[in-house]
Amino acid sequence: MGRDTGAKCRQCRREGEKLFIKGERCYSRSCPITRRNNPPGERTRRRRPRRSQYHIHLREKQKARRIYRVRERQFRHYVEAAKRRKGATGEALLTLLERRVDNVLYRGAFASSRDQARQLMVHGHFELNGRAMDKPSALLREGDTLSVKEGRRRKVQAIIAANSDREIPSWLERNVEAMKLQMVGTPKPDEVVHNIAANLIVEFYSR
Q: Are 55 and 119 in a shared domain?
């Protein structure tokens, strides 16, 4: 995703739930959505108008895009790729998004947020299967290994220590001492930490 200069906390308030965009702040008491869980622009809590089916589908699509930090054009490509796979299109879509390098680093607690994971990748802190990698949108396959470069360990080590209590999904294997993260299985839709109704997203693009 290109650089997002907008207010990230407003995006969470717009979707009505935490999207964990700002890393550590999202887990703290200073998270605005815990104090003011109403859409931006509304000064008072009032009854929300009945939403149309189009609005429901749109909001679900926007929520997923904001969670995974993906632009509209790229997100549409993921949906089209998911349609070409066997099985449920919604589950295939979530699997593709979970396989992104920036998401894998975040889910493996090697970054506090997906934005931070993207920055670390672009700045050349990691290697993929022993080779330099600076593309955060690359999709990993089972058996692939992400490792921190020798000269970049100090900065990443502090990030890993700050996220040591995060739960790691079963399809990832983390070696903190070697500073490696290996994909040992296929991401499972039921292990996605966010409540995403992928079927609504598929229906949105099937209009």
A: no
The single residue listed with the structure tokens 């080779």 is 131
169 shares a domain with 145: yes
CA distance 203 to 192: 20
Q: What is the mean pLDDT of residues 83-93?
A: 94
Sequence-distant (≥ 6) Cβ neighbours of residue 14 within 8 angstroms: 39, 40, 62
What pLDDT band is residue 194 in, cutting at 50, 70 and 90? confident
Letter string b/e over residues 7-36, b meaning 16 or more CB atoms within 10 A of that residue's CB: ebbebbbbbeebbbbbbebbeeeebbbeee
Rounded Cα distance, 105 and 120, in Å = 9
Give burial (CB, 10 Å; 0-12/13-18/19+) of 50: exposed
pLDDT of 73-83, one tens digit each? 999 999 999 99
Amino acid at residue number 104: V
Cβ atoms of 61 and 207 within 8 Å: the answer is no
**Which residues face 172 on adjacent strands?**
183
Count of domains observed in the chain:
2
Q: Tell me the pTM.
A: 0.80
Residue 195's contacts (CB-CB under 8 Å, 6 or more residues apart) are: 17
Residue with tokens 């490792």: 147
